[in-house]
Amino acid sequence: MSLQGFYQTGYVTHDLERAIDLVDHGFGLSDFSHFDVELLLRTPAGEKTACLRVGTAWAGSLQIELIQPLSGYVGTYAAGLPADTDDATPRFHHVAVRRECDDQMRRDITSLGLPVVFETDGAGIFSALVDARQRLGHYLEFVSASSQGWEMLGWPK
Question: Are strands 6-12 and 62-72 parallel, antiparallel or unpaired?
Answer without folding.
Answer: parallel
